[in-house]
Design a protein that fits this description.
single chain; 814 residues; mainly beta; Maltoporin, Chain A; globular
Length: 814
């Protein structure tokens, strides 16, 4: 549920006048935008020379997104996956085949939430929560984002916080949901005297999770304190935010293709609310190769503790405008999850395990027994079991980013130039520790732990091969530390040639130094079967110290046909430099710089009845890394083969809103694209013989060719009552690069309503996934993403949409 926390932070992007001046927009429904540009002047959406989506406060309140990725469903060209819960979402922008937030950056008032938004198990959306301070969102798709921001080749998502007014005001909001959700949000701002204004806000919520693990899934909140002061020709803002929040990580479940072609959860497993994680896998003590014990607590989920302090200054200096922004953050993340790695029949598992019978003297056959009931055989109506992974990842991050801009607008005859020179600096240190163990689980919701037992001739337990459900300790182990330092210079110019034509250009040079170490791992045998192949550290450190630099540029033009319409075109050469995550598991390999060619041609129209923004786009992404990492139960998986390919996507984006009357409106967006791999060739080994593979021309994994969203709304009782329905459609996608496993098309309906009881009191109702759709958002990446081991399988692991939820909220504004 959308819960908002304090006033906006003044940043280099927020140097325009306060939101009240946005009435200066030239066309009906038009707004001033600040993302994707710099300069001393202002710019409206209808006159931008790039694609930008704006999501205002009313739209956010009616959608009430539960996560960053949910909030972006109305952005064309973005395929978003939010089925994993409130954090750790995935975004694919304009067909670029990068998971997480590897191709787009998250900004808070123009400053990066995290310098690198995709640090390997540490996505920027884990460190950010939507709440009542967020007044609007601006999303730049491609275009100039790579010039003004680091690690943003495919776009930038800017969350703009609300201003503190000239009089005391605030919000209190309480909410509840049918999955044990209870939430309270507050925000208050007031003048303090002597030019200062202060604000404080935050939220706290608890819930059992839409897919309940049998214990509290989400628990925590954040608080923000903010001070601002007007200066002579400028303003300064100080902002402190503290986040302490636990959110569950929802993963795949056992699914089946039925004779009629429908795909749904296996019988007895609730596909809308079931989850493999449960009370028996909540807290597990796992042996480590050095004799220590690793306590795995899945009740932590993704637990983020973050302190963030920001200073932003803007100042007029003799015709120049200075914008200085400094942000320091300290983030401690513990990311635990119960991963369903492999699904197979109990019979097949017992058959392939016959070689282990000799480990139990006196045993004549193998059987599966429940850990919580040692004398009870495991009996699953589907005859299935799961090989799971209990994975714990610890990631401390200390980060400082600074962005300094100088802008000036000047005339050259009848023409004008709005020039900006900027310098960006970032420094961060990251730690990474990972430990995982393999467990046997029943193929049931809140899955029970299973022991592999040896039975004697009388059917009595002669001994167990596993150890309280653990098949192998330590199938994953990593220990790494690193530092990164980035310097970037950028220059932009908005050249107004005449009243109708404007040419925008920019160039960015960036250099990064990455240095650190990873500890080599090795397998050790501590005697028992479960401890026979523990991955652990050797004490030998592999060091790296590398520099990378690259220059990119963008050039665009806007031709204003009329006050309400215009056309634009843009070509961008973008890049993404390596980061510390590139070394976590491959310290000896020197990463490569990824480069992109991005083009777009669009039309803009905004009138009292219609907003329309169609855009043709082209994306070419070079040096896309791929790995063929397939889970193996025997802990003997070789290091994954890694290579590089490229991708190419042509597409059409369409977004807009129709206002036939004050009673009815319709929002819509549509994406048509043809995303495919280029140069994806490698040599596989089958029966120890080389087999060439060529997937060039295949569709990109998990990217649909067709996506659509329709949002009709009705305003009744003099706008006191609004009813809204959101229809979402996702076309067919593929799990693997070989295009052997299909994720079928699906649709979903969400309903929302708002009733304004009094000028100060509003009530909201939200029903998400009204029809309980089980549309699949992803397959099982642990079965291989080049050629999936699930190809041809009738029963498999996949992650469907979250089930139906009903939420209500009451807001009081003063």
């Amino acid at each position: 549920m959308l819960a908002l926390a304090s006033a906006p932070l003044l940043a280099q992007e927020n140097v325009q006048p306060p939101p009240a001046t946005e009435q200066a927009a030239d066309a009906p429904h038009d707004v001033v935008i600040v993302t994707g540009r710099a300069g001393a002047g202002t710019r409206t959406k209808s006159k931008a020379s790039y694609s930008i989506t704006t999501i205002d406060e009313d739209a956010l309140r009616m959608q009430a997104p539960t996560s960053v990725t949910e909030a972006l469903k109305s952005v064309p060209g973005f395929w978003v996956e939010a089925s994993g819960g409130e954090a750790s979402g995935n975004i694919r922008a304009r067909g670029i085949p990068v998971d997480g937030f590897g191709s787009v950056t998250l900004l808070e008032d123009g400053i990066p939430v995290q310098h690198d938004p995709s640090l390997g198990y540490l996505n920027a959306d884990q460190a950010f929560r939507l709440d009542e301070t967020i007044e609007r969102i601006e999303v730049v798709r491609g275009g100039p984002s790579s010039v003004f921001y680091t690690n943003a080749p495919a776009g930038a998502i800017n969350f703009r916080t609300r201003e503190i007014g000239d009089t005391a005001s605030g919000i209190v909001k309480v909410g509840a949901g049918n999955f044990g959700m209870r939430r309270v949000d507050f925000w208050a701002g007031t003048p303090l005297g002597n030019g200062w204004k202060g604000g404080i806000g935050g939220f706290y919520r608890i819930d059992d999770g839409i897919r309940s693990p049998g214990y509290r899934a989400n628990d925590g909140g954040q608080v923000r304190v903010r001070l601002t002061r007007m200066l002579d020709g400028g303003r300064i803002a100080l902002d402190f935010k503290h986040l302490d929040d636990k959110v569950a990580l929802f993963l795949g479940i056992p699914m089946r293709t039925y004779p009629d072609g429908d795909i749904a959860a296996i019988p007895g497993f609730d596909g809308n609310r079931g989850t493999v994680a449960g009370p028996q896998t909540r807290v597990v003590d796992m042996r480590m190769g050095n004799g220590a014990t690793y306590r795995f607590d899945n009740g932590e989920g993704t637990h983020v503790k973050r302190k963030q302090f920001t200073v932003a200054l803007e100042k007029e200096l003799g015709g120049w405008k200075l914008a200085e922004s400094l942000r320091h953050s300290s983030t401690d993340t513990q990311r635990n999850g119960v991963f369903p790695n492999q699904l197979l029949s109990s019979e097949a598992f017992l058959r392939q395990s016959q070689g282990l019978l000799a480990r139990v003297p006196g045993a004549t056959r193998l059987a599966l027994r429940r850990v919580d009931a040692p004398g009870t055989d495991y009996a699953d109506p589907n005859g299935l079991l799961l090989v799971g992974g209990l994975r714990g990842v610890t990631m401390p991050l200390e980060e400082t980013v600074n962005d300094l801009r100088l802008s000036r607008k000047f005339a050259a005859g009848t023409q004008t130039h709005d020039v900006t020179l900027g310098y960006y600096f970032a420094r961060f240190t990251q730690g990474f520790d990972r430990y995982s163990s393999t467990v046997l689980l029943g193929a049931q919701s809140q899955a029970p732990l299973l022991d592999l037992a040896g039975l004697d001739a009388a059917g009595r337990v002669a001994g167990t091969i596993t150890e309280r459900g653990i098949y192998n300790y330590g199938y994953e182990w990593e220990h790494a530390r690193g530092k990164s330092r980035t310097h970037a210079l950028y220059l932009s110019d908005e050249w107004q040639v005449d009243e109708r034509l404007r040419i925008d250009g920019g160039v960015r040079w960036e250099k990064v130094n990455t240095r650190g170490w990873t500890e080599r791992g090795a397998n050790v045998d501590l005697g028992k079967f479960a401890t026979s192949k523990i991955r652990t550290g050797t004490g030998v450190l592999d060091y790296y110290d590398n520099d990378f630099d690259k220059m990119g540029w963008t050039l665009g033009a806007n031709w204003q046909l009329a006050r309400t319409s215009g056309v634009f075109g843009r070509w961008t050469k973008a890049f993404r430099l390596p980061n510390l995550s590139s070394y976590i598991t491959s310290p000896a390999a020197v990463p490569v710089i990824q480069t992109m060619d991005l083009g777009e041609l669009g039309y803009k129209y905004s009138s009292a009845m219609l907003e329309l923004y169609p855009t043709l786009f082209y994306s070419k992404y070079d040096n896309v890394a791929y790995t063929n990492n397939v889970f193996s139960i025997d802990n003997a998986t070789s290091r994954p083969q890694t290579g590089y390919a490229s991708s190419r996507t042509f597409g059409l984006e369409l977004e807009g809103r129709l206002f036939p009357s004050s009673l009815v409106d319709l929002g819509f967006n549509l994406t048509l694209q043809d995303p495919e791999y280029r140069d994806l060739r490698y040599t596989d080994r089958v029966n120890n013989l080389p087999v060439p593979r060529d997937y060039s021309g295949n569709a990109l994994i998990r990217v649909p060719k067709v996506s659509a969203r329709l949002v009709p709304g009705v305003n009744l009782l003099g706008d006191k009552l609004r009813l809204q329905l959101a229809y979402e459609y996702q076309g067919k996608r593929y799990v693997d690069s070989a295009n052997t496993v299909v994720l079928p098309k699906y649709h979903m309906l969400n309903f929302s309503a708002r009733w304004q009881a009094t000028p100060a009191v509003e009530a909201f109702l939200y029903v998400d996934n009204v029809e309980n759709s089980q549309g699949l958002t992803e397959g099982n990446p642990r079965a291989g993403e080049l050629a999936s081991a699930d190809a041809g399988a009738n029963t498999f692991i996949a992650r469907p949409l979250l089930g139906r939820t009903v939420r209500a909220a009451l807001k009081y504004a003063f």
